[in-house]
Specification:
- About 15% of the residues lie in helices and about 45% in strands.
- The protein is of the alpha+beta class.
- It has one domain (about 30-105, about 175-375): TolB, C-terminal domain (Neuraminidase), CATH 2.120.10.
- The strands form 6 sheets. It has a 4-stranded antiparallel beta sheet, with no helix packed on it. A 4-stranded antiparallel beta sheet has the order 2-3-4-5, with no helix packed on it.
- A hairpin with a 5-residue loop joins strand 2 (about 50-55) and strand 3 (about 60-65).
């Protein structure tokens, strides 16, 4: 009798899990309406600006740009076929009567034998940290730059690199540094890429899809120590697709895109404690804490399966265009309340949203444009 009860309980748990996954699928496939500011400027960039990082106290925004479609999602292509990425700076105008100015940054002292494919960025004082998916031309690593002219016209000088463990190859996503030698970093997938690049076989796509459907928490937030340029890391939290991470005081905030949650974590000397878990209507990608407003701004994707469909078309040799609707949400860390600010179709594949003054800046992991919007449309004069 006891075995029967155990069997029924197991079946019930499995059915509940599958029902929960199906519910997630039906919700993310729902119709999405656009809303929010409409006076947005779509600014051309040399490559797709995945992360956009405002420099506090200035009107400058640092952006990591790269051709991630060739790097990851074009059949027969990969790291060896991808033109190097870089860091650009965008100077925001005083108001919407003028235009932002985007300039590439010529990095001083860069080791020319290393490829540069930047992803997540973090600024700590006058030091910029950038994840670099360099594959065979440098490995998976973090580049450390000194930001020169931080209050005027920012420039970058390469200082050193930190080599990441092999199990993070190609899947290190976002990061924050809490000291010169300690940092937290997310990995977005359960399996690393090979040193030669990302697998485009059907089995890889099926594995990602099944992990999402079954709700497997096989991606992680890692706590790492830098010891003479070599990182040693341990997983401290898991999720379905661990993505953006930001720092507010002694607390970490990390997004689980597929799980549609944001975790609030307290950093302690020997552990990380989850304090709060906030449900989000949309999948959160990158996010940045704005100290002036004491709010967290989050790039969101309206429907998770738009991404899967887009990538499947790309891997099949097609030319996917648009279709990944995204926008920006605001999270109040004191109350846990999430406010929807913007949902739009001008910028495809929104990956980040950050606030600088009265502007929102949104990046894309796929499209070579940055979207600049006022926090609110200017009121019409009566």
């Amino acid at each position: 009798m006891r075995r029967a009860h155990v069997g029924v309980a197991v079946v019930a748990a499995l059915l509940a899990t599958l029902a929960g996954r199906l519910l997630v699928v039906t919700e993310v496939l729902k119709e999405v309406k656009t809303y929010g500011p409409v006076m947005c400027l779509k600014m051309p960039s040399s490559q797709a600006p995945e992360d956009a990082l405002p420099i506090p106290g200035t009107r400058h925004v640092l952006m990591g740009v790269d051709d991630r479609m060739t790097l990851w999602h074009t059949p027969g292509k990969g790291p060896n076929d991808t033109y190097p990425g870089g860091i650009t700076t965008m100077k925001l105008p005083k108001d919407m009567n003028d235009y932002p100015l985007i300039h590439p940054i010529d990095i001083k002292n860069w080791p020319k034998e290393v490829a540069f494919h930047p992803l997540g960025l973090h600024l700590r004082n006058d030091t910029l940290y950038a994840i670099n998916n360099a594959y065979l031309q440098g490995g998976e690593r973090i580049e450390v730059f000194q930001v020169e002219g931080i209050k005027s016209q920012p420039g970058l000088k390469w200082q050193r690199s930190i080599q990441l463990p092999e199990y993070m190859y190609g899947i290190a996503n976002d990061l924050v540094f809490t000291s010169n030698h300690e940092f937290f970093i997310t990995t977005w997938h359960s399996q690393p890429d090979s040193p030669a690049g990302r697998s485009q076989c059907l089995c890889s796509k099926l594995r990602i899809t099944l992990e999402m459907l079954l709700g497997l928490e096989w991606t992680y937030l890692h706590r790492c120590k830098d010891s003479n340029g070599q990182a040693t890391c341990e997983a401290v939290a898991s999720g379905m697709l661990m993505n953006g991470v930001t720092l507010r005081g002694e607390e970490l905030w990390v997004a689980d895109t597929v799980g549609r949650t944001v975790r609030r974590l307290k950093i302690e000397p020997d552990r990380v404690v989850e304090v709060q878990r906030i449900d989000t209507e949309y999948g959160v990608d990158n996010m940045e804490y704005d100290e002036v407003s004491d709010k967290i701004y989050m790039g969101v994707q309206a429907r998770a399966w738009d991404y899967v469909d887009f990538i499947n078309k790309a891997h099949s040799g097609g030319k996917p265009e648009g279709g990944i609707v995204g926008g920006c949400d605001e999270l109040d860390p004191t109350t846990g309340a999430v406010r929807h600010i913007l949902m739009q179709e001008k910028q495809n594949a929104v990956s980040s949203c950050s606030r600088s003054g009265q502007f929102l800046v949104m990046g894309s992991w796929q499209e070579p444009h940055a979207l600049v919007c006022p926090l609110e449309d200017p009121k019409k004069s009566s």
